[in-house]
Structure formats: C-alpha cells, structure tokens
Amino acid sequence: MSTWSTPCYVSDFVANPRAAFFVVPLFCSLAWVMTSGCAAIPRHRSAIDKVAVRGARELPASDVEEKMATAPTPKFLGLFRGVVYDYELFSRATLQRDLARIERFYRARGYYDAHAVAGLVLETKDKHVRVEIEVEEGPPVRNAASRVEGITGLPKEIVDAVNQVAQDQLPPGEPFDEDKFEEAQNAVRKALTDRGYAYAKVERDALVDLVKHTALPVFTVTPDQPAKFGKVIIEGRSSNSAVIDVEIPESVMRRTIDIKEGDPYSTSAIEDATRALLDLEVFSAVEFQPELPDPPPPSHVVPLKVRVEPNRLRHLRLGGGVEFDQLKTDLHGLIGWEDKNFLGGLRNFRVDLKPGVVFYPLRLDKIVTPTRLLPEERLRLQFKQPGFLEARTNLFVAPEFNIFPLLVRSSDETAASIVGYREVKGATWLDRSYGNLYSSVGYAIQVENPFTYQGPLEDYLSTLVISYPEVVARLDFRDDRVHPRKGAYLQANFQYAGGPFGGNAGDWKTQPEVRAYVPIASSVTFATRASVGFLFPRNYGDIVQNHLNENPNDNRAERTRDIQTTLFRGFFSGGPSTNRGYPTRGIAPHGIIPFLNPATASQQVATRCNPDEPDFRAELCAVPIGGFTLWEFSSELRIAVTGPLSAAVFVDMGDVSPQTSDLRFQRLHLSSGVGARYDTPVGPIRLDIGYRIQPLQVLGFRNEDDVARQDPVAGLPPKLLGIPVAIAFGIGEAY
Q: Would you call 708 exposed, middle or buried from its count of C-beta atoms within 10 A (0-12, 13-18, 19+)?
C-alpha cells in the first residue's frame, strides 16, 4: 500500500472565510480518502487502463467486452484510478482465454466464422497498459424455415399453432442464435401444454451448413395424450398457519383460481390463476406446482399444488413531504389505512388523507417570503369487491373530497383573488384481465365548487358538474412493469360527458398511447413513448377556440363558463411524465382568466395585459387554460451506472392546440436533458433537468419570446435564473 500526504493550509482561505468553512473540510476529507485508499501495483505486473474491442459491427462492442475477464481499472468518482478500488492487473493467460470466450460468444449468436485476435497491448509509463482486441465477425449462419416433427396426428388447429410458434421464434433469414433456439424449444412445448398436452416433450437439433451459412432448426415432438386437471390443493408457507384457514378464506381463493377438477389442462390457465391471486394483493408469492410424473399415469390427470405466502392484511401509513416546483411550494403529510380483508371475503378498503399547506407565492423560480398560507387537503377512499359477478371481475367504488388552490402562474402582483376549489369526486368501475389485456368500464362524476382564499369571487363563476362513463383498455407486453427492458405497452381510453348522463360539460374525449422498449446493450435501454389526444366539446369551447385574445370583459359570463370547463376537461402537457423541459401543465393554450382577477381585469386590459399593446407581458397575464388536441413524443436512453444508480438522456416534444383535430407538428416544444435515478422498492426516484432548445420550440421562430410576442395564446413558460430549463422530480420511470 502506497501512501502520500497533503497538508491543509487554512491560511490559504483567510481572504474568504466562508470558502474556508466549506472547502477546507472537503479538501482534507478528499485527501484522507486518497491517502488511506490508494492501491499499489505489484512488482512485475501492469495495471489495465483501457480495454477496447475493434471490428464489432453486428454485435455491440459493450456486450463483447462484458464476456471478458480482462477489464479496465474502475475510477473513483470517475477521475482517479487506484483510489478506493484495486487495480485490475494484466495477464496474458487471461487474455488468451478471453479470446476464446469472445469467439464462443459470437458462435452462440450465429457467427461461426468469427475470430478474435490478440490485438495491441500498449505499455505506458508507470506500468500501465491499454488492451485492444481485433474481431473479424464474418458472415452469419442464418435460419432456414423451422421443421417440427411428430405432430402429424394432432388436430389441424394445434399443428398450425405449433408450426407458427416455431417460425415466429426463429424467423427465416435471421442469424441463428442459440439462446433464441432454446427459447423456441420452450415456446413449442408451451404451445402444446396450453392446449392440454401436459406431458408433451420437445427435443431440438440444428443442421448447420457452414458452406451455405444456413441452419435448419428441427424440433422433435412427443405429444403424448391430452390431460385434465386433478384436485387443487392449497398450501400456505406462513409462520401462522391459521392465516390461510381463518383470515384468507379458501373458498375465495378457489373462486379466484377458477380451475376445477376435470377441466382441460392448460399452462395459460395456470398463468392466469397466478396473476389473479397476486392481483388480490394479499400474497407476496404464489407458486403453482403441477404433478407431472414420468411416465404419465394412465388417467393423464394432473393434480395442482398451490403454495402461497400471505402478506400482512392491514397497513397503517404515516409520512409527509415537500413539493417545490415552478407552480407552488407546499408542505404536506400523508395518513393512510388499508384493510385487505375488510368484512371478510378479501374485500379491500383503503383510506388516504393528504393534508397540506401552500406557501404562497413562493415557488422554484420565485424565491420570496410567503405572504399567505393556503390550506389544502386530498381525501380518497377506495373499496374493492373481488369476484364480482364472476371469478376474475372486480368492482371498485372510489369517492374523493379535495380542497386546493387554483395555481396556474397568474401574476402575483396583480392578482386580486386567490381562487380555490372544493372538489367532490365519485367513480365506480368493473375491471377484468385476460392475459396481457386489461379492460375496465365505469362511471365517474365530479363536482367543482369555487371559493376564494383571498379577495372577491367572480360573479359569473358557479359550481361545475362533470359526469361521464369511461372505457379503458391496456395491452402490456413489457418484461417488467417497474424496470422495463424490452416489450411494448398500448393503452386507450374513451369518455363521453354530458348528454343523458347529466352535468354541465358535454364532450367526447380519448387519448391513446403506445410505448416501446428495446435493449441496446446489457446496461443500456432505449425507451420511447407516443400519445395523441382528441377532445370534441359539444356545449363549450368557442371562447378558447376563437376568442381567447379578445378583451376578457367581453361576453364575461360565457367566457368564465367556457374557460372554467376547459380547465377541468382540456389537455395539458409538460411535467415529470411528459415534457420535462416544461413545468406541469406548462404546454397548453394560454389566455387571461377573468375569474382569477375579477377586480382588476379592466385595469389589466388597459395596460400591460392587453395583447394588442406593445408593452404586453404574457408571462404576467396569460396562463395555461387547456386545449382540445394533443400530441406527445418522447425518447430516452436509460443507462445502468452502478448498483441502484442509473442515468438517462432524453428528448421530449409535443403540443396542445386550442382547436379540435389540429395536430400542429411544427410546434415541437422540443426539450432535451439528462437525469439521475436511484432505485428503491417502490421504483426509481428520478431527478430530470430539461432544457428547451430555443429554435425548436416553434419552427420558424428564433426563441419562445418571439413566439409569445407573435402568438400570445402560445404562452411564455417560466425560466430558472433566466435559463429556459425545468427541473422534474418523480417516483418511477417517466413511462
């Protein structure tokens, strides 16, 4: 172990005592880490500074490097080698074995002619080396059409299904990959076990022609006979065995499993039953064990053993937090109670209360002393009845009561009123899952009752009632819901408000969305998301679509009603889950909201809040109102760094138009940025910083200030320290 010392001279910082207070301890601590944690290179050995693979084109070089034992020395804080971490030592014998590993890795991916050559080993000063390896990939061996043998006596629909699975798993013309070959074998067997052939066996072989560079995958099937389910035996692995018998009724579990003795055997039925039991949220683990002896019994009956690990059925949650963003600053608490066996029968009852206070007008881009404390609260109750009408359908009832200020960044200097809402919501719906498909149908009603924390209430502002049924469908093909690496996710919803369902708002509303995930390398994932939204109002929207720039005192009653309804039904974009270069709800048509300033609207129009005047300041007057057509597109690279830490590089864009059926792709609102993630049991905690690239906000305009001057409805988003950036916090990935 080599050591060295670094003196700390306080006198160097006398000219700046505050700097000395922070810098001296930091500098001395860093010196201590480096003096006590420096590694030494043994005699007659060399440390590895860099390893590079050249010539890797068809396969990522990073994947090739991960198969090697020869690796570069890690850097402490990304800067120092040999500090805290030991040196990686160079060995020619290890390098020779790495060359063999690389060639084997390539052959497993179909590149049978690949060769790895011990490249360059460059010795640098102080016993450090850089290793370069040359790879000659050669042409790949490609799949021929797969052949499945042994299924000629099966029903035609089963033969067709098995053949189709084999072709889908190993597409002709693709490189012959050993891992995919094994996956194809399992998929062929599952195609049979899904259709009752519980004892089916599948063997695989490949006829490889190295001259023609082709591989013929061959699957030999022994299907045996169709089987049926036998008895279903439920076992619990819990320190309290009575939990299964008393608190978690076996009758409810059997109803949820929905597999009866004598039913045709199916692995997909077992998978659906596993998912249904986990969806009850009372088990931490569920395992189905079919008894499949070899040789099969003459009856071909398959008993099922179900092993479950119960969770705690009752939870009390206490916590709190601080929200500090470009809309508001608040301090809030969290009190929650959940009973997963409410009144028996595994009914779920949950209560969540979030009391808080808003420090008005303090926010991220306006550091001032708060002048008002605005109380707020959110109370939500939810009741779930499993097995409603049939085994896998759930009934939900969820009432809410909320009180909150309407903070949309109107000018704090001119605001005569601080408007808030007392909100009552109620929703009930049925949901059902079918494999990867989730669907729900329900009805919701909400009542928005305005009041003021300060100042008068607009005369024309009245209680708003919104009532609508909603249908939701989701297809989830992701490999993991919390940390997706590959797959796709599709969602669509549809709402119809007003009409025979009552309420003040009449409209049609839908917002489909699609997400995709592609692994680029072992530690890098490409994720992308696209969404469009369409809202067709039937009895409101004329002001927002046609008269938003007009004098707010004209048609005041109609204007107030129109804007209030759009605030609660319109589309908005921006924030941690959409466009991270903008604050929450920052992308939307902007305008002057009369009921936020009922006493001073005339004065505003006469001065700087008149869009026709040269001294108009949109940032003080125009606020997001909501729009009727939305499009969003986001992409990011997610990079695993070390342990629970990861990083992301993202690009977000999108727009919200005040018109219906108006996808304005020239209004990009493009932002890019970087983010950091720290993984937790509830998902990664995210911090993202997004920068709005000025020439790419609206094509043809130099920056967003020019856009706001030419089109006040576009709005002018807030800046941090004069820079067009936004900071977004969140739990879970953005999408």
A: buried
- Report phi then psi at 246, rounded to 5: -100, -60
Element (H, E) at 273: helix 267-279
The amino acid at 105: F
Task: Show contacts of 267-271: CB within 8 Å, 24+ apart.
Answer: 267/190, 267/193, 267/194, 268/194, 268/435, 270/304, 271/435
Q: What is the pLDDT of residues 60-104, one digit of tens each?
A: 887 888 888 888 877 766 666 666 677 778 888 888 888 888 889
Considering the domain 142-222 in this protein, what is its CATH number?
3.10.20.310
Q: pLDDT tens for residues 222-263?
A: 999 999 999 999 987 444 444 444 578 888 889 999 999 999
In tens, the pLDDT along 528-559 reads 999 999 999 999 999 999 888 777 777 888 98
- Fold classification of 228-310 (topology level): Ubiquitin-like (UB roll) (3.10.20)
Q: How far apart are CA 401 and CA 353, in angstroms?
A: 10
| Torsion of Cα atoms, 678 then 682 then 683 then 689, to 10° | -60
- Give the Cα separation of 608 and 100 in Å (integer): 74
Per-residue pLDDT at 39 exceeds 90: no
Q: What dotted CATH number matches 39-136?
A: 3.10.20.310
Cis peptide, bond prior to residue 295, ω within 30 of zero: yes
Residue where the block lists tokens 């022609």: 209
Q: What is the DSSP string of 347-396?
A: -EEEEEEEEEEEEET-BTTB-----EEEEEEEEEEEEEETTSSSTT-EEE
Contacts 24+ apart (CB under 8 A), 317-324: 317/352, 324/363, 324/364
Residues with Cβ within 8 Å of residue 351, at least 6 apart in sequence = 336, 337, 338, 379, 380, 381
Of 34-43, 301-310, 541-550, minimum mean pLDDT range: 34-43
E-only strand ranges, 565-660: 590-591, 623-624, 629-642, 645-657
Q: Give me 52's structure tokens.
A: 């590079």
Long-range contacts of 208-211 (CB under 8 A, 24+ apart): 208/112, 208/141, 208/176, 210/112, 210/113, 210/141
Asked if the domains at 39-136 and 228-310 fall in one CATH topology, the answer is: yes
Measured at the alpha carbon of residue 565, what is the angle toward residues 563 and 567, in degrees to the nearest 5?
A: 70
Q: Helix, strand, or coil here: 677?
A: strand
Instruction: Specify the pTM.
Output: 0.78
Nearest to 433 by CA among 478, 473, 406, 492: 473
Strands 47-54 and 201-209 turn out to be unpaired
Cα–Cα distance between 354 and 159 in angstroms, integer?
57
- The domain segmentation of the chain, as residue ranges, is 39-136, 142-222, 228-310, 318-457, 486-492+504-735
* % pLDDT > 70, the chain: 87
